[in-house]
Amino acid sequence: MINFQVNAASRRCALLLSVTMLMAGCAQPAAERRSGIQRMYVFDCGEIHVADISRWSPGVNVGQPADFSDNCYLIKHTKGLMLWDSGLADSIADQPDGVTAAGGTLTMHKSKTLAAQLAEIGVAPSQVTHLAFSHTHSDHVGNANLFTAATLYIQQSEYDAAFGPEAAKFNFVPANYEKLRANPMVKLNGDYDIFGDGSVLILATPGHTPGHQSLLVRLPKRGAVVLSGDAAHFQDNWVNRRVPGFNFDKEQSRQSMDKIAAILTVERAQLWINHDKAQSSAIPHGPQFVE
């Protein structure tokens, strides 16, 4: 038992050290770095009512219903516009009673389309130049096919699963993103600096899906924020490192949470959990923005 604790502590220290080196490598001296990031919009891209939240927190909250938020994020940078996640399909907004799935255990609602929210700030889908998704599940790529002009940034392992012959095995629905096959594409094998100035970093955080990724955004006024995708679905799961049974890899999931935690420490960053409705309600949503 003592040896396990020492080894676990050593692993955490090694992770923190490696993350510190990673962040240092992405941060040029202040005199040289001219971050082009200007602002970030957070859009309401739907809501999901689940009949039993214990599916996401095994052994806890059994039989309790819950509501998940579902956000999309648009980052305005001097080098272009980047969309992170595209939420539930806009067609759901046409269904006043929502759309049920998974045998009626969840119901998806959408009050306003992503296209309409972009139009409200004067942006057309064709103007988005950079595109990335935390992962390829339908509540994150529901409107992916709108953005065929953008360069797609995707982990190689996620690409292989999503665009391969067994996409359904990973609970992916190719019709949601099929048009992206022809997009300019950057296939990643780890972390990546999108604009080359350290302001927007893709973080490889596999586990929920083979190539799940998160996003570190260094905002000019608010400071650093990590958009964690589905690395955790709500705060209590994050704190207790709970992993849903349907995740692709349980151990990778926990390792990715530890990686994010180390980055939060180094960056003194806020963690924004996409599906945590309580947290989401406290964040300004479009047409407002955060800087």
Explain how this protein is built:
The protein has 291 residues and is an alpha/beta fold. It has one domain: Ribonuclease Z/Hydroxyacylglutathione hydrolase-like (Metallo-beta-lactamase, Chain A). The protein is 24% helix and 25% strand. The chain has seven helices and 13 strands. It has an eight-stranded mixed β-sheet with strand order 4-5-1-2-3-6-7-8. Strand 2 and strand 3 form a beta hairpin. The longest helix has 25 residues. The protein starts with a helix and ends in an 11-residue tail after the last helix. The N terminus is likely disordered.
Largest sheet: 8 strands, mixed
Can you tell me the number of structural domains?
A: 1
User: What best-fitting shape do the alpha-carbon axes yield?
Assistant: globular
From N to C, what is the helix and strand string?
Answer: HEEEEEHEHEHEEEEEHHEH
Give the class-level CATH name: Alpha Beta
| First-residue to last-residue Cα separation | 47 Å
CATH topology: Metallo-beta-lactamase, Chain A
Q: How much of the polypeptide forms β-strand, as a percent range? A: 15-25%
Instruction: Give the number of DSSP strands.
Output: 13
Name the CATH superfamily assignment: Ribonuclease Z/Hydroxyacylglutathione hydrolase-like
CATH architecture: 4-Layer Sandwich
> Helices and strands: which structural class?
alpha/beta
